[in-house]
């Protein structure tokens, strides 16, 4: 097994190493939450120890644990708690077990293994595994999203970003938080990649306010999910007929352009395809061959620069024996 330890105390890390050495447990030391967040993406830890003074509500480690529920290791907070409020704060931040100093090595090991057994049996309660904002429902355990009654497929990182935004609806989530939690990096490095993921979320979810939910961007603040109200959701849902095919983002597909706003009798009829006469003169052969070459002709020799094209330029014309093989360019050129 492998344990991750986020602490600035050398004595605490040494105590953990001494108590878990006999059970083939390797402890890995981290000095900041960014490095631990990167390691959580690459490696699977059986438990995570965080010293109380390193615990922050906006920590990248806590954000990553909230986003990736399938790779969620138990979190054990160790430190000196002055009052009941500080203990409740640790549990509210996402701690699964709290060890109050002063403590001994056997006590720390016993609490750790008890937490691991509780996680192995699946008895750890998670009350925030489902988030519903308007017509959008996110299930963290299954990493699935429902828009109305339609399921939208997302990648793991797209779902992680969506979970951070929807679980903090009405509040701005900074680019730094998303970069640290999802990529374990800084916003300067993955800024362009983050913008592309935000664009994909807007496109897949239709977060433009039609379903009552809008994804807003504010400079120097980040991104925020805004709920316009249930009235917009009811109006949009009732306006969709039953026989209209619904797209993946829950909005019916409609024709685009100015023609869709005109009455059927005022729309311009579709242009009929041009017909080429079988007795077309040879003076237009070069132009037709060039046009047909752009539409993938059937015979390579009829392309501009081919053998048949060079013979036509010399006045020899197209051989009749090639016409049964090339119907795209040669057949209209028969005398």
TrEMBL record:
Pfam families for this protein: Trans_reg_C (PF00486)
Keywords: Cytoplasm, DNA-binding, Phosphoprotein, Transcription, Transcription regulation, Two-component regulatory system
Signal sequence extent: none
Cell compartments where the protein resides: Cytoplasm
DNA-binding region (UniProt annotation): 128-227
Highest taxon, organism lineage: Bacteria
InterPro entries (UniProt xref): CheY-like_superfamily (IPR011006), OmpR/PhoB-type_DNA-bd (IPR001867), Sig_transdc_resp-reg_C-effctor (IPR016032), WalR-like (IPR039420), WH-like_DNA-bd_sf (IPR036388)
Keyword Phosphoprotein: yes
Name the record gives this protein: Response regulator transcription factor
Species whose genome carries this gene: Paraburkholderia youngii
Taxon lineage: Bacteria, Pseudomonadati, Pseudomonadota, Betaproteobacteria, Burkholderiales
């Amino acid at each position: 097994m492998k344990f991750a330890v986020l602490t600035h105390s050398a004595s605490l890390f040494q105590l953990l190493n001494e108590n878990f050495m006999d059970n083939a447990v390797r402890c890995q030391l981290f000095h900041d939450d960014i490095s631990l967040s990167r390691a959580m993406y690459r490696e699977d830890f059986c438990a995570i120890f965080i010293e109380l003074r390193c615990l922050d509500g906006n920590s990248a480690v806590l954000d990553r644990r909230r986003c990736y529920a399938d790779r969620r290791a138990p979190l054990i907070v160790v430190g000196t708690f002055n009052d009941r409020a500080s203990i409740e704060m640790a549990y509210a931040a996402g701690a699964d077990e709290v060890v109050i100093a002063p403590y001994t090595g056997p006590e720390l090991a016993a609490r750790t293994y008890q937490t691991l057994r509780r996680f192995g049996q699946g008895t750890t309660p998670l009350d925030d595994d489902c988030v519903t904002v308007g017509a959008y429902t996110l299930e963290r355990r299954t990493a699935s999203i429902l828009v109305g009654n339609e399921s939208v497929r997302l990648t793991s990182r797209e779902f992680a970003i969506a979970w951070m935004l929807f679980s903090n609806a009405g509040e701005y989530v900074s680019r730094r938080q998303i970069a640290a939690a999802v990529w374990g990096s800084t916003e300067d490095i993955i800024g362009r990649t983050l913008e592309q993921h935000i664009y994909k979320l807007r496109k897949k979810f239709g977060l433009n306010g039609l379903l009552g939910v809008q994804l807003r961007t504010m400079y120097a603040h980040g991104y925020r999910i805004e709920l316009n109200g249930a009235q917009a959701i009811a109006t949009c849902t009732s306006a969709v007929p039953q026989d209209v095919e619904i797209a993946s983002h829950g909005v019916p597909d409609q024709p685009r352009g100015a023609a869709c706003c005109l009455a059927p009798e005022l729309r311009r009829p579709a242009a009929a395809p041009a017909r080429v006469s079988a007795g077309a003169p040879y003076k237009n052969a070069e132009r037709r061959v060039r046009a047909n070459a752009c539409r993938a002709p059937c015979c390579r020799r009829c392309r501009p620069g081919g053998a048949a094209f060079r013979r036509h330029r010399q006045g020899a014309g197209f051989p009749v024996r090639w016409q049964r093989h090339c119907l795209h360019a040669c057949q209209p050129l028969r005398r």
